Amino acid sequence: MTSVVSYNHPLEEHILSAFAVDPNITEEELAGFVKARDGTSKLDLANLAKDVLPKGRVESLREMTVDVLDESYKVPEQLRAYREALEEKLSAQGKFNGPVAVLDGELGRNIRLRRGGYFDFMATKLEVVPATLVPDRYPSGVSIEQLMKEYGIVNEQRARFIGFAFLMLPQNRQEFQLVQRAKGMGIAADCISSSGSTPPFNDDFFIGGFNFGEYWENHVAQEMEEEYKLGKGEFRIDGAYIIDDKKTVPHLALEIQTTPSTAALAERIYGDKSAISEHPVLYSMPPKAIGTFLRRFDVWPSVAFISDLFYRDNVKDN
User: What's the structural domain count of the chain?
Assistant: First the structure.
């Protein structure tokens, strides 16, 4: 039997529990880690609402309808020199241009997808500065976001792939769980956020009558097994918020109810290298503590917004 290091931190009348699934983290380090993050919140929901836009909710992933376009995604012409240089750099680092499903147009219950690549996403991240790789083509210190305004590129032209955020609700929704994301992650690295995934683009999408809801459900089941060692009978998807994040990627924020508690999940993945590479620490709190937690701890912006949305819909005033 493993012995997961844990630490309980006061949240007014509630308790925030942290569990280190990385055996290299000591109890003292975990406590110091959590204490250092208390009071770091920069929560500004009104400002977040400008970039994180709820587009509705579905009770089942099978309510979504999807059209797949034949033509693959292409980075806007003005940014292709950077895209080519970035592929050369990332390939040399052993990175793989994995297939991603790029959203074409607006996000909603009915969506259109194109085949794209992970390098396309990396080449159109708002904060990157193309001159770092192609100094003779792009102005020094100028980001993609700034260049878009200069070139007349709109946000929908970026490689905005569809992602999943997992709002974990362990112990049959008695807990609300977030994670400490590992360093080096493609999105939301080294911060408090949710766990999540990127459903890959699949050539079977072009087959008439392809069942996207079933495909996504199977993808979630695979992720739950890999990230938390959860079998299909130990969790269920309780619906999803449709979230258009203008700054990062559009995604579905899935409510995932699990039978095991966060403590039990931490035991299952303790020492697991794959899990540690994504989230070395799990955080758990009663759903009633979400509001206090967000006021005190810095959380990845879109996940902070979604957590508050979940809190208002399910906990506050109930």
Answer: 2
